[in-house]
């Protein structure tokens, strides 16, 4: 049953008036928005009293704007449009309220890429909560694929292998890290062949290991003595002379103390990639944060 305006407050008098003019009929506008024709007529009259003039002429042929109505119409349309935008934003914010965004990530992203966007996003949506789960590419991609994480940072190969939708942010090159007392520290640039001769501490990157792939492409096999998931543990091990390693440039910024960092001639690198299972079913909060990340980080 059609309702009175007070019972259906989602339509302001400005929106009702714009609908009447658009439909060219009180009856059609009333049917479209679920009001009685009497309620629509009263709403338009109230607007005319507010503006102090007659806005429309009523005839058997329908509703037409008066000269005053033509003058006011662009402003009334703008108000109605802004009200719709405001209502949409309100629904969006309410939809994000108390939402938890679960993100699979790894050390360098957790430390360098995520803090500022998370802070800024929570300024927009203060009730949103973040849950960061840290691991290597393969596990992260699997978490996203099976729904344990909404979003996941991985490398491009990991996202593609898991069949995820994704966006790539760009390359992050790998650097050689050696103890200061190691003879390799005397060189300005190292090769994978140099590193293959040393006790090697391998960063566990899952099945899509950029390090192992780089050695394989060079026809080399590193002398892996330790395999470790945590980058900072690897740095501590290098400082204590347990071996050499390859770590990502982004992760190393600010942590070069006690080790020697050198570029690698072959320039192995990963492509940092954000993945998600399906855009159509991605929770609203996670989708908005993914859009924010892509807009802010490129």
Automatic annotation (TrEMBL):
Domain named HTH lysR-type: residues: 16-66
A Pfam family per the record: LysR_substrate
UniProt keyword list: DNA-binding, Transcription, Transcription regulation
The keyword Transcription regulation is assigned to this record: yes
Transcription regulation is among the record's keywords: yes
InterPro entries: LysR_HTH_N (IPR000847), LysR_subst-bd (IPR005119), WH-like_DNA-bd_sf (IPR036388), WH_DNA-bd_sf (IPR036390)
Similarity remark: Belongs to the LysR transcriptional regulatory family.
Name assigned to this protein: LysR family transcriptional regulator
Native source species: Tractidigestivibacter montrealensis
């Amino acid at each position: 049953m059609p309702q009175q305006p007070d019972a259906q407050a989602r339509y302001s008098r400005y929106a009702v008036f714009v609908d009447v003019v658009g439909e060219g009929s009180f009856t059609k506008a009333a049917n479209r928005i679920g009001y009685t024709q009497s309620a629509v007529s009263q709403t338009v009259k109230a607007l005319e009293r507010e503006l102090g003039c007659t806005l429309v002429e009523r005839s058997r042929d329908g509703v037409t704007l008066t000269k005053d109505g033509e003058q006011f119409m662009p402003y009334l349309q703008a108000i109605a449009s802004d009200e719709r935008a405001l209502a949409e934003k309100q629904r969006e914010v309410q939809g994000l309220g108390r939402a938890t965004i679960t993100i699979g990530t790894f050390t360098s992203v957790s430390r360098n890429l995520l803090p500022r966007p998370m802070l800024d996003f929570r300024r927009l949506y203060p009730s949103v909560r973040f849950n960061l789960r840290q691991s290597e590419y393969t596990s992260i991609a699997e978490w996203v694929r099976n729904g344990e994480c909404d979003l996941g940072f991985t490398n491009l190969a990991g996202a593609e292998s898991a069949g995820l939708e994704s966006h790539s942010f760009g390359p992050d090159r790998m650097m050689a890290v050696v103890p200061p007392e190691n003879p390799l520290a005397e060189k300005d640039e190292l090769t994978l062949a140099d590193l293959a001769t040393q006790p090697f501490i391998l960063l566990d990157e899952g099945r899509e290991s950029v390090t192992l792939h780089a050695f394989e492409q060079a026809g080399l096999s590193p002398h892996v003595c330790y395999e470790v998931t945590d980058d900072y543990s690897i740095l501590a091990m290098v400082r204590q002379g347990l071996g050499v390693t390859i770590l990502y440039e982004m992760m190393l910024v600010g942590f070069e103390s006690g080790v020697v960092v050198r570029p690698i001639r072959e320039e192995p690198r990963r492509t940092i990639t954000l993945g998600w299972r399906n855009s159509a079913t991605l929770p609203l909060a996670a989708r908005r944060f993914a859009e924010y990340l892509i807009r802010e980080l490129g």
